[in-house]
């Protein structure tokens, strides 16, 4: 089983999401701590997914971008032990559901090339905005999210079909 927890800001509840982001993005992917953790952490909503025993699975953050009439999703990470098990899909679904509840017309995502395929499956397209460091910016209108199920594309063995 898994649990999800939302926190806002960089207070006590942010510690678990921060630790997972540090493990994946800083230590594993080599992103500098100064680049990974920024002022947006203090105002963003952070989603943390863990096992019922508290083992970290995934994390991401989102925050308003009123200058684009959008909410932005970024800093998506999945712990190594849980990759390839559709937790990236789960994380994004929970975040998209919450983003659609917000008073903006679009959802932006700032992600690395590795996450592009996942987001395009939900209807995201290039935003035409400048890249943020190594990330690309994608967008989808709130009403344009595609809710296809990744599970129906997985064989009975749990492997994605080729």
Give an account of the 3D structure:
This protein has 162 residues and is α+β, with helices and mostly antiparallel strands. The chain has a single domain (2-153), classed as Gcn5-related N-acetyltransferase (GNAT) (Aminopeptidase), CATH 3.40.630.30. It is built from four helices and seven strands; from the N terminus they run βααβββαβαββ. It has a seven-stranded mixed beta sheet with strand order 1-2-3-4-5-7-6, with helices on both faces. Strand 3 (56-65) and strand 4 (70-78) form a beta hairpin.
Radius of gyration: 15 Å
Share of residues in helices: 10-25%
Question: Total helix count?
Answer: 4
The CATH architecture: 3-Layer(aba) Sandwich
Give the SSE order as H and E letters. Answer: EHHEEEHEHEE
Strand numbers in spatial order across the main sheet: 1-2-3-4-5-7-6
- Number of strand elements: 7
What does this entry show, briefly?
This protein has 162 residues and is α+β, with helices and mostly antiparallel strands.
Topology record:
Blueprint: E1 2-8, H1 15-28, H2 33-36, E2 45-51, E3 56-65, E4 70-78, H3 87-100, E5 106-111, H4 113-120, E6 125-126, E7 136-141
Parallel strand pairs: 4-5
Antiparallel strand pairs: 1-2, 2-3, 3-4, 5-7, 6-7
What would the keywords be for this entry?
Aminopeptidase; 162 residues; seven-stranded mixed β-sheet; 25% helix; single chain; globular; alpha+beta; 4 helices
């Amino acid at each position: 089983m898994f649990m999800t927890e939302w926190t806002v800001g960089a207070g006590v509840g942010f510690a678990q999401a921060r630790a997972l982001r540090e493990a994946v993005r800083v230590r594993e992917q080599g992103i500098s701590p100064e680049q990974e953790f920024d002022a947006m952490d203090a105002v963003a909503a952070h989603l943390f997914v863990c096992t019922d025993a508290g083992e970290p699975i995934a994390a991401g953050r989102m925050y308003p971008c009123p200058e684009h009439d959008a909410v932005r999703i970024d800093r998506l990470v999945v712990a190594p032990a849980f990759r390839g098990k559709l937790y990236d899909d789960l994380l994004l679904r929970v975040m998209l559901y919450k983003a659609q509840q917000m008073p903006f017309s679009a959802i932006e995502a700032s992600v690395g090339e590795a996450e592009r395929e996942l987001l395009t499956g939900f209807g995201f397209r290039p935003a035409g905005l400048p890249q943020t460091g190594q990330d690309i910016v994608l967008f989808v209108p709130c009403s344009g999210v595609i809710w296809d199920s990744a599970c129906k594309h997985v064989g009975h063995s749990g492997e994605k079909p080729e």
